[in-house]
Amino acid sequence: MTPSPQPVSTQPDSIQSSFVTVEIPLEDSPSKMETAIQAALRQWGDPLRWAVMAVDVANQLVKVEAIVTQPLPPEPLPSLG
Questions:
Q1: Residue 72, pLDDT score
Q2: Which element (helix H / strand E) includes 40?
Q3: Mean pLDDT in residue range 47-59
Q4: Where are the domains of the chain?
Q5: Distance between CA 39 and CA 25 in Å, rounded?
Q6: Which one of 3, 7, 55, 61 is least enclosed by Cβ atoms within 10 Å?
């Protein structure tokens, strides 16, 4: 039995962008801070850009605002049958 052909998408992958605000614990070095920020943002998508908006020294927190991207699920293709 010959397998039937499967539809192939010719559309480019689409992405969605979102604005995200996170608060994370203050780290003791800039490199550790950057690593912690990147890890926190990856929970929401792929960080496109981010900025530290506030540092709360009393509570040892950093507020970060970012734009993250996520791939959109592919649209269903029409059936060939």
A1: 82
A2: helix 30-42
A3: 97
A4: 15-71
A5: 12
A6: 3
Q: Which two tokens stand for residue 51?
A: 């900025």
E strand or H helix that includes residue 34: helix 30-42
pLDDT at 2: 44
Q: Which residues contact 15 (CB under 8 A, 6 or more apart)?
A: 69, 70, 71, 72
Task: Tell me 36's DSSP state.
Answer: H
Rounded to whole angstroms, what are the CA distances from 16 to 34, 65, 75?
24, 17, 14
Could you give the CA distance from residue 9 to residue 74 in angstroms, rounded to a whole number? 9
> Token pair 């990147």 is at which residue?
38
Write out the two tokens for 49.
């850009």
